[in-house]
Amino acid sequence: AQIRYSIPEELTRGAFVGNIAKDLGTDVAKLAAANLQVLSDSDSQYFSVNVNTGVIMVSERIDREQLCGQNPRCFLHLKLAIENPVEFYRIEVEILDINDNPPEFPSDEVALRIYELASLGARFPIQPAQDPDVGTNTLQTYHLSANDNFNLNVKARTDGGKFPELVLERALDRELRAFHYLVLTAEDGGSPPQSSKIRITIQVLDANDNHPVFDRPSYGARLVENSPLGTLVVKLNATDVDEGPNGDIRYSLSSHNSAALRQIFAIDEQTGEIRVQGNLDFEEATVYEIEVEAKDMGSPTMEEHCSVVVEITDVNDNAPEVILTSFSSTLSEDALPGTVVAVIHVRDRDSGEQGKVLCHVSPDLPFQLRKDYEHQYSLLTSTRLDREHVAYYNVTVSASDLGNPPLSRHTILPITLIDVNDNAPQFEQASYEVLVAENNPVGSVLVTVSAADPDSEQNSRLSYSILRAGGTDPGLDPTRYLSIHPTNGQVTAKFPFDYEQTTYLQFHVEVSDGGSPALRNRTLVHVFVVDQNDNAPRVHFPRAGEDSATQFRISPSIVPPALITKVVAIDADSGRNAWLSYHLVEATDLGLFSVALRSGEVRIMRALQETDASEHELLVVVRDAGEPPLSTAVTLVVLVEEKGPEALQGSEARAADGGGLPTITLYLIVSLVLISTVSLVALAALGIRCL
């Protein structure tokens, strides 16, 4: 919204300007709660707002002439900023002129020397009075005191200035009157009007009776601003019909020209060429009116005046300016699209199309510009932001004018995104599989689980813990056997594993970040216990006490290879560690008996002779296939005896009992082969999956 007020200059401090709350149609309490602020485009703060009443007041003395010079209209621009939500209101305060300055001449008196033969109608410029007021309050007219020879002519310049000229209406006669004393009064149009006076002393001279004459009363020229030094503006031409020194003409810039104009233009006194010697800036002045005088070298000298009007053409020599009215360099990554990041004011000192400015930002960035009103833009977020994708932006705001070629200015706005906890931790693997040899050392690291969180600082600080996995035997609490380091994810064993008790364990590892609220994730860990050869074979048959032997009786007429007995042993280990072999390591006669390597069957290898002993002691060793192998020994005593039918029946019964042993052995072998096959297949599948 835009509001305009008008006030006269020179108001006292605290003077009423306007009621912003009333003019905006809002409640004063809302303005106070919205943190109302007044922002001025100028360096001084001329106004203030009472947030309790909504009244804009004058806070500093305002001098329109100091602010705007001779501009016919004078404005001060304000912006009212309101928060929650952010709104801007543009206020124009027009400063009205009052008649607080009288016209003033450069001096209190001026002296003129006029040749008595000056022709009627000759004009003699008088330094004009200056009035810094504008409009009707500025200089309006001149009045000349009553006299017989001179009349007053007021010449109006194209820039609105007026300067007086004395016009000779009646011929002078030095012999009759050598000096004339006149009073010139300058008066403005104020109410009441103000005025000032200057005394004019005219000395009538005798001699040179022809003054120089320009070929034209005025000259015109057009230059582009920033023209190079030495550029020719115009060449003047004046003639004097007198001869000798009275006809020798010298050109100069009139004293009517300001000091600033004399620094910009110079004239060659011999040729009358006016050239550029300073910087031409369209933004400072669009038209220069140069007063030139031509004097002859007579005594007294005679002079003539003309004006040269120089129009300056604007070129696009000013790049746009970008001013940050409001800017926040940090932004939360969860900011909604349309969030205001910065308020930007742009301006260009050039005029016309060259002074119009367009702003834009790169379409590849998640930001956009919104034009609030002329010369003001707001930088907004256009899409959702993600700090983990891009954490820092350099937003280049490009301001270009419509000149040919256009000029532009680029302003970089660094914006850092503030992290929010919007990413859950992610494990490197969905599940982990671990092979652990039984009898592992306490405290050994079984596996290290690792997770990553793309958030930053506290939101990325991870903590690990062990949970029971679904489907796990309730008796196998993983926290009983295992522990995990909360920060590095190393899983260690509290106790050694025993393959014969536990062959497999699974559990969940949960990771949580340090955000609020915390985000979590889980992974499944499979622990396979690998068997070690830690159990020696155990003999189940024949059973014998410690340090004792088992006796078997055979008939002397036994026919080889008769089965005497069968040694049956088992191993609590699995796989190769449970593959058993039987060895006859000691015997009274090693050639008389044999033990089957795999079945453990003890047989007689030849017929008994009378010379053979009646008692034979056999030492059978049962050895597994582990690394290193473990073994167990059993001692058998074979007695050779003649027995009656009862004894033979007992032997046959024992033999019959022994006849069932091969079936047991077959079952054991089949079981061992199946267990070994399943173990090998499982290990191969695990190895392939790990690879």
How would you explain this protein's 3D organization?
Strands 1-7-6-3 form a four-stranded mixed sheet, with no helix packed on it. The radius of gyration is 59 Å and the shape is rod-shaped. A hairpin with a 4-residue loop joins strand 4 and strand 5. It has 691 residues and is mainly β. About 3% of the residues have low confidence. The chain has six domains: 94 residues, Sandwich (Immunoglobulin-like); 97 residues, Sandwich (Immunoglobulin-like); 101 residues, Cadherins (Immunoglobulin-like, Sandwich); 98 residues, Immunoglobulin-like (Sandwich); 105 residues, Immunoglobulin-like (Sandwich); 103 residues, Sandwich (Immunoglobulin-like), CATH 2.60.40.60. It comes from Pomatorhinus ruficollis (streak-breasted scimitar babbler). It is found in: Cell membrane. Pfam families: Cadherin, Cadherin_2.
Element layout with pairings:
Elements: E1 2-8, E2 16-19, H1 20-24, H2 28-33, E3 37-40, E4 47-50, E5 55-58, H3 64-68, E6 75-82, E7 87-96, E8 109-115, E9 123-125, E10 139-144, E11 150-156, E12 162-168, E13 179-188, E14 195-205, E15 213-214, E16 218-224, E17 232-235, E18 238-239, E19 249-253, H4 259-264, E20 265-267, E21 273-276, E22 287-296, E23 303-313, E24 321-327, E25 330-332, E26 340-347, E27 357-360, E28 367-373, E29 376-381, E30 392-401, E31 408-418, E32 426-427, E33 431-437, E34 445-448, E35 451-452, E36 463-468, H5 478-481, E37 482-484, E38 490-493, E39 504-512, E40 520-530, E41 538-541, E42 550-554, E43 563-566, E44 568-570, E45 580-587, E46 593-595, E47 601-604, E48 615-624, E49 631-640, H6 645-659, H7 661-690
Parallel strand pairs: 1-7, 8-14, 16-23, 25-31, 33-40, 42-49
Antiparallel strand pairs: 2-5, 3-6, 4-5, 6-7, 9-12, 10-13, 11-12, 13-14, 15-18, 17-21, 19-22, 20-21, 22-23, 24-26, 26-29, 27-30, 28-29, 30-31, 32-35, 34-38, 36-39, 37-38, 39-40, 41-44, 43-47, 45-48, 46-47, 48-49
